[in-house]
Amino acid sequence: MRSPISPGPAAESTNPNPGILLLKLGGGIPALLGLLQGEMTEAAMAYVASRQLSQFIFAVAFFHSSEYALAAFFHGRSNVTLSSLLISKQYVVAMVCALLEYAIEILLFPRLKEYWWVSSIGLVMILIGELIRKAAVITAGRSFTHLIRKYHDDHHELITHGIYRFVRHPGYSGFFIWATGTQIMLCNPVCIIAFVVVVWRFFSTRIPYEEFFLRQFFGFQYVEYAKRVPSGLPFIR
C-alpha cells in the first residue's frame, strides 16, 4: 500500500529530465539566434536608411538655400526671384525618382545599400561639387547668374582668375559632380546612370548656347580663353 506522502506516477512525471531539458534548449538556440540576427539586421538597415536619407535631404536643402542666399547677396534681394532656388519640375521629378528607387531597393535588395565605401565616395563628391560651385559663384560675384545672359551689361565681365583659370564653367562642373554624388551616396545604381546622362546632355546643349553669347560679348578674348581652358565637363570642349 502506497504512503499518502509518497510521490505517485503523476508526481514523478513532473520532475524534468536534465537530458530532455538540454535537448529542448539546444533546439531553441538556433531559433533564438535567428531571431536576434533578424532584429539586428532590421536595426542596421534602419540606421543605414536614416543616415543616407538624412545626408541626402541636408545636401539638397543646403544646395538650394545657399544658391538663393548667394544670389541675393551679390544681386540684391529685390533682384532675385524664387527661380534662384533652381527647383524646376524636371528637377523635382528626378529627385522623386531617386527616392522611389531608394525605397524599392532598400525593401527588396537591402544589402545593396550596405556598401559604405560607395556611399562615402558619394558624400565626398557632394562636398567637392559644392566647393567647386560655390567657389565659382563667389569668384564671379555679380557676373554669375542662374539665367544665361543674352545682352551685355556693365556689371558683366569675363572672369578668368581663381577657379576659372582651370575650368571655364566651374558652376556646371560642380553641379555635375554634386548631382552624381547624391545618387552614389544613396547607392542608387539606376539613378546614377540616369543622372549622369541627363545632366551631361543638359550641359552639352547649354554650354555651346551660352558661349555663343560670350563670344559676342568678349570677342577674341573669350575665343583665346576657351582654347586654353577646358569646359570642366567630360567630352564637352
TrEMBL record:
It catalyses: [protein]-C-terminal S-[(2E,6E)-farnesyl]-L-cysteine + S-adenosyl-L-methionine = [protein]-C-terminal S-[(2E,6E)-farnesyl]-L-cysteine methyl ester + S-adenosyl-L-homocysteine. It is found in: Endoplasmic reticulum membrane; Membrane. It comes from the Eukaryota. Belongs to the class VI-like SAM-binding methyltransferase superfamily. Isoprenylcysteine carboxyl methyltransferase family. Its main location: endoplasmic reticulum. Divalent metal cations. Probably Zn(2+). GO terms for molecular function: protein C-terminal S-isoprenylcysteine carboxyl O-methyltransferase activity. Gene3D superfamilies: 1.20.120.1630. Keywords: Endoplasmic reticulum, Membrane, Methyltransferase, S-adenosyl-L-methionine, Transferase, Transmembrane, Transmembrane helix. The chain crosses the membrane at residues 56-74, 86-109, 115-132, 175-203. It is a multi-pass membrane protein. Its cofactor is Zn(2+). GO terms for biological process: methylation. One of its GO terms (cellular component) is endoplasmic reticulum membrane. It is an enzyme of class 2 (transferase). Its EC number is 2.1.1.100. This is Protein-S-isoprenylcysteine O-methyltransferase. It holds the Pfam family ICMT.
